[in-house]
């Protein structure tokens, strides 16, 4: 088992961490293609390909910050204080690439909505892993108005058709990323042996 864990792919999976504070450079175009192509391998009941991504980069990030933060404030979210807005703008200014994430729901499919959203989430996880494997950092955020319909509409994602899942911030880690102690999987595992629980 020890030898298996030293294999590059498994090592990458076991060392991936969320990295909030990022800077340029972002993955190059050919690297972005590899990262996004990895999403296409996500498990997908019904082959619906429900995942959708909207790329925001360069000067578009500042413009998106303006309209999204304005929409959040107009929604009445009291958490968007002037101090919070300043902090969010400073964070976004350093991040070179954002991917807005959504699941496009096929309401006529026999595949239930939950499974369609799970497929989109699996695609996002593939992106996170591929980003890490190429030496970059990423952070999945549901801030910046993920649950404000006006923000979703700004991105061209009609709330009647899409379930908005937030954003991936992607770039180069702005500081050293320490190893994080992970829990032992056995804490989350049980074995079913065929016995049914005794009646109360």
From TrEMBL:
EC number(s) reported in the record: 1.-.-.-
Enzyme class of the recorded protein, top EC level: oxidoreductase
Nitroreductase domain residues: 15-171
Keyword Transcription regulation: no
CDD domains associated with the record: YdjA-like (cd02135)
SUPFAM superfamilies, alphabetized: FMN-dependent nitroreductase-like (SSF55469)
Binding site for FMN: 16-18, 45, 140-142
Swiss-Prot/TrEMBL keywords: Flavoprotein, FMN, NAD, NADP, Oxidoreductase
CC cofactor: FMN
Xref: InterPro entries: NAD(P)H_nitroreductase, Nitroreductase, Nitroreductase-like, YdjA-like
Cofactor: how and how many bound: Binds 1 FMN per subunit.
PANTHER family the UniProt entry points to: NAD(P)H NITROREDUCTASE YDJA-RELATED
Family named by the database record: Belongs to the nitroreductase family.
Protein name: Putative NAD(P)H nitroreductase
């Amino acid at each position: 088992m020890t030898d298996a864990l030293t294999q590059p792919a498994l090592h990458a999976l076991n060392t991936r961490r969320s990295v909030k504070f990022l800077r340029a450079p972002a993955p190059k175009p050919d690297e972005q293609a590899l990262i996004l192509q990895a999403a296409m391998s996500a498990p997908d009941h019904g082959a619906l390909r429900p995942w959708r991504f909207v790329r925001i980069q360069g000067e578009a990030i500042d413009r998106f910050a303006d309209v999204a933060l304005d929409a959040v404030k107009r929604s009445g979210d009291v958490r968007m204080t002037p101090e919070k807005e300043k902090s969010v703008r400073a964070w976004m200014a350093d991040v070179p690439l954002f991917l807005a994430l959504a699941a496009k729901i096929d309401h006529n499919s026999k595949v239930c909505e939950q499974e369609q959203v799970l497929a989109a989430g699996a695609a996002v996880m593939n992106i996170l892993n591929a980003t890490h494997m190429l030496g970059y950092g990423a952070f999945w955020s549901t801030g910046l108005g993920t649950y404000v319909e006006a923000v979703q509409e700004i991105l061209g994602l009609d709330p009647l058709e899409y379930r908005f899942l937030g954003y991936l911030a992607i770039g180069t880690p702005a500081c050293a990323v320490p190893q994080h102690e992970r829990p032992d999987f056995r804490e989350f595992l049980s074995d079913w042996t065929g016995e049914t629980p005794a009646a109360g």
